[in-house]
Design brief:
Elements (H helix, E strand, L loop, with lengths): L1 H20 L7 H10 L10 E9 L6 E5 L8 E3 L5 E8 L7 E6 L5 E4 L17 E4 L1 E2 L5 E4 L3 E8 L8 E7 L4 E3 L2 E4 L8 E7 L9 E8 L2 E11 L7 E6 L19 H10 L14 E3 L24 E3 L6 E4 L19 E3 L2 E3 L4 E2 L3 H4 L7 E6 L11 E4 L5 E6 L1 E3 L4 E4 L4 E4 L6 E3 L4 E3 L22 E2 L7 H7 L13 H13 L12 E7 L4 E6 L5 E6 L10 E3 L2
Parallel strand pairs: 1-7, 9-16, 17-19, 21-26
Antiparallel strand pairs: 1-4, 2-3, 2-5, 6-7, 8-10, 10-14, 11-13, 11-15, 12-14, 15-16, 17-26, 18-26, 19-20, 21-24, 22-23, 24-25, 27-28, 28-29, 29-36, 30-31, 32-33, 33-34, 34-35
Pfam family, one: DUF1554
InterPro entries: C-type_lectin-like/link_sf, CTDL_fold, DUF1554
Protein name: DUF1554 domain-containing protein
Length: 561
Amino acid sequence: MKRNTIIFIALPILLSSCLGRLDDISVDPSVLLQSMLSAGAQSPAPAGFTVGGQIYGDTPSGLDLSLSGGTGCGGVQNLSPAATGIYQFVGIPDGCMGTGITITTQPTGVYCQIYNNTGLNVSGANVTGADLYCFSVEMPATTQTTIEGNSNTASIRLSASPGPGGITVNFTSGSGAVTTTASLSFTSANFSTYQNLTLTGAADGNLSPETVTISADVATHAMGGFDTTTLDTTATGMARFIYVTSGTHNGNFASDAALPGSNWVQRADHYCSLNANRPASLVGTGNYRALLTGASTRRSDAGAQLDWPLRAGISYYDQDGTTLFATADASNLFTTPVANLLPGGGDYWTGVGSAPSWTTGSHCASWTVGTTLQTGHFGQGVTNDASLFAFSNFNCDQLKSLLCVQDIRDNGDGTASSVHQNLTWMRCSMGQTYDPATNGCTGAAGTYQYCATGDDSCNGGTSPGLLDGFGPSPMFTACASSTLAGRSWRVPTLAELSELARSYRASPDILPDIMTSYYYATTYAANPTNYYGIWFNPSVTNGFLVKDSPVAFLLCVSDGM
């Protein structure tokens, strides 16, 4: 205890002596004392210097860097920056010569390009400027459409600058069904500007669509991709699908209120177009009609056909799009034996009493009876002879399928052709533009006057009459001036547009952006001040429109397929 007392007494004497000696020095003694007392609590500064730079652009999740090589630089260091901003390797000895930073792992879906990263020397200061520029490739978020035998484009750009040296993005198609531009180059000046990647569909001679993935990479590092679906138009004008419905029905189509339409033909056609009755691969592939004959309205008899859905020279394929069933002959009929049987076979109503003449047989009283009081002829899809269409007849209370053929099909160029009507329709309203990448319409639909004056001057001076173009007609001029698909266009008749509206009701995909709450114009003038329009609603309503009032939308039609 005595020693301890001496020590505590001696310390103030020692400090006092030291402070006395500092009187002649221009330093605050209290500050110096505090420094002396606290010096032992401070940690020594890390040895060496830092080497690094800045990370710009996208978050580099998963990025791995390595500092190695050189003379007098110590061992290899690894670093995994997880954010943009400054990054540093620390503790690099002074005098380190010729070291370098390399990217050992690129981020997932992001590519980082490094600059000023080799031959780094530490000489009494930190090294900066080894900067990284990280970016992704922005591609279409939705599936594109590529038309076989034609080309379209997809818009591509970078999310951030690739740095002062620029970068090349490579593209690869997952199938020969679509070829693509090999690469696109981007710089720090144009990285945010969309560039067009050209997609070209190969003509394969069948009706089978394919989904192809277009993949992007930078220096073999995967950068994601997008899908494009091929739209087969190689033989669209001369080829269609045929199938047997999965659902079955008795012989009374005329009275089935669940099917839209005003007669047995319209209701049987609608039954064919129901998605539930189609093979899954044919959902959304246009409009279908029933290969069904009766006493009137629709007849199959050679030389006396009425509203018959087959057309000479059209080849019909089964649901896979590659297997040919048969090609209609000069009489708009199938001759047997056919090339191949249809998948599933089964029994289906036809009303055909005999083949190859396709004479109308028993037909459940034109498909108005669903009881044992009447019989109907049916075909059987298990052989390739005449039994395919005229096997036997049976009571109309029996449940059988229908044999359905495709009528309206998308041509992939903004038009759709109808076998039944032998017409080609615009798929977009006048004023809109067809977009091949989405196979849809862009822009606003316009409205047009039937006639610049509210009288009969545009329809031959007679009432009723047809729009003939001799008077000042904005509608007539709009259609006549269009050169879509290299065709000549006109305003449709009331009957033509009514038929299209019924087809649309069963298969909305044929007209992607139709205005269902408004009337579309026809050529039919009802009286001096009004003309007929069609409303694309469930009942396909006709309505009177004022001739000189620009209230009607316009779908133009072209003769022939």
